[in-house]
Amino acid sequence: LAGSIVASAGPATLGLEAAHLSWAQQREYATSWFPGVELTATVGVVEDLRRVKDDAERARIARAAAAADAALAEVMPMLGEGPTEIELAGALDVAMRAQGADGPAFETIVASGPESAKPHHRPSRRRIGEGEPVVVDFGAALDGYRSDMTRTLSVGGLADPVLERVWRVVAGAQAAGVATVADRV
User: Fold this and answer.
1) Are residues 1 and 11 in contact, defined by beta-carbon separation less than 8 angstroms?
2) Contacting residues for 74 by C-beta, under 8 A, at least 6 apart
3) What is the pTM of this model?
4) Number of other residues whose CB lies within 10 A of the CB of residue 37
5) For the residues 3-15, what does the mean pLDDT come to?
6) Does residue 36 come out as left (phi exceeding 0), alpha (psi in the -120 to 50 range) or beta?
7) What are the strands, taking DSSP E only, across 75-144?
8) How far apart are CA 164 and CA 73, in angstroms?
9) How far apart are CA 149 and CA 38, in angstroms?
10) Measured between alpha carbons, how far is 65 from 60 in angstroms, rounded to an integer?
C-alpha cells in the first residue's frame, strides 16, 4: 500500500498495488477498511522502493545467508552416513533454526544421483550414495529477509568422469562471474 497522508485526517488517497490485489480485495478495502478514501491503482511502487537495499536490510540478508551457510556446514558430515534426501533436508532445516533463523526461506530441496538434474525435485526416501552428485537448494528466513543458495556436493568425489568435468566447467564459470561482478562493485 502506498498513499499520501493528509495531516490528522487520515489518507485522502491510497495506492493499492494492482498486480497483487484481486477485485474482491479492492472492494473490501474500499467499503470496509477505507470508506471515503480515494483508492488508486499503482504498479510497481512497492517493488521500486524495495529494489535498493539499505545497510540494515543488507545486514539482515547477510545474517540469513550466514545462518544457512553455517547450517550446511553443520549437516555435511551426515553425507558420509548415507542419509535419505528427506533426512538431510530435515536436518538442514533444523540446523538453520539452531543458527538463529526463523525457519527455512522455502521448502528445502535435496536431490541426489539421477534426481539431481531435476530443478524442483522434492526430497524422497532415496539414500544418498557415494560418488554421486547431491544438489541442495535451500535458504534461511530471518527478520523478514530470506537467503537462497544452491550447492552441488558429492560424497567422496564424483564417480563419473563426465560429471567431474561438468562440475569443473561450471565452477570455473561461476568463479569468472563472481570476479566480474566484484570488479564492478
Assistant:
1) no
2) 95, 98, 99
3) 0.74
4) 16
5) 62
6) left
7) 103-104, 109-112, 133-138, 140-142
8) 22
9) 42
10) 9
- For residue 1, is pLDDT > 90? no
Q: Return the percentage of the chain with pLDDT > 90, whole number.
A: 62
Set of cell numbers at residue 32: 470496509
The C-alpha cell that represents 98 in the structure block: 539452531
| Three cell numbers, residue 76 | 555435511
pLDDT at 9 over 80: no
Percent of the chain with pLDDT over 70: 95
The confidence score (pLDDT) of residue 143 equals 96
Is the Cβ–Cβ distance between 103 and 97 less than 8 Å? yes
- What are residue 10's DSSP bridge partners? 6
Tell me how far apart the alpha carbons of residues 151 and 134 are, in angstroms, rounded to a whole number.
8
C-alpha cell at 24: 474482491
- Degrees, nearest 5: CA angle 105-106-110: 115
Location of C-alpha cell 488517497: 13
169 has a pLDDT exceeding 70: yes
- Structural Rg of the chain based on CA atoms: 23
The label of the residue with cell 499520501 reads 4
Question: 131 and 102 in contact (C-beta within 8 Å)?
Answer: no
124 close to 84: Cβ distance less than 8 angstroms: yes
